[in-house]
Amino acid sequence: MPIISFANAKGGAGKTTAALLLATEIASLGKTVTIFDADPQKWISKWSELTGKPDNITVVSSVFPATISGQIHDAEATSDYIIVDLEGKENLMVANAISVSDLVVIPIQGSSMDARGGAKILRLISKLETIVRKDIPHCVVLTRTNAAVTTRAMKAVQDSLKTNGVDVLFTPIVERAAYRDLFEFGGGLADQDPALVSNIEKARENALRYTAEILERTVDLPKKHSWFQTFRKAS
């Protein structure tokens, strides 16, 4: 039951879109998914109220810093995958969720502001690894990219990440109308009408490649250690 959290200390980095794409694509494979909507904007909770939410996706909207680790632990009994969409800040909720995560995904757009927000999360992960005495696997996914052109700002972000040895997904999340439509009309990409949504095939291909890369990083996750239970009691 991999726990995958999405975090960036700056809002608007494409975090919620990345989380929802992963959840719906995993659900399309027949797996059960629980999403913890810890973002105050509650976009995934609003999405869940629209028609077309897969029955094998559960969305938990009531999430609190003091209880999130326990809530995640309880969800492991009924879910194949747990996905946590965190607030665009660096706070106790974010720290608690990251501490019990098997993988942290840091979405970054091609801007220095997003890069700085991502860097804060990377530093937080480093601190938490010392506290829990365990590596916390993490990676960056580039978001809202242009399929045809790599901007100067995006190139600068890519170069900076490479220089600092940060694990970056090979597949970026391309800016697609189909991704925005999920939050307007509900469901997953497989439910979208090709006659009404432009380039739905390319959007689905991009989402599948992105999902495959994330799942590859969860195949050989280590078993839970005693630190999880210790942290749960402390929080």
Automatic annotation (TrEMBL):
Q: What is this protein called?
A: Chromosome partitioning protein ParA
Transmembrane ranges, per UniProt, are none
Q: Which InterPro entries match?
A: DNA_Partitioning_ATPase, P-loop_NTPase, VirC1
* Pfam families attached to this UniProt entry: VirC1
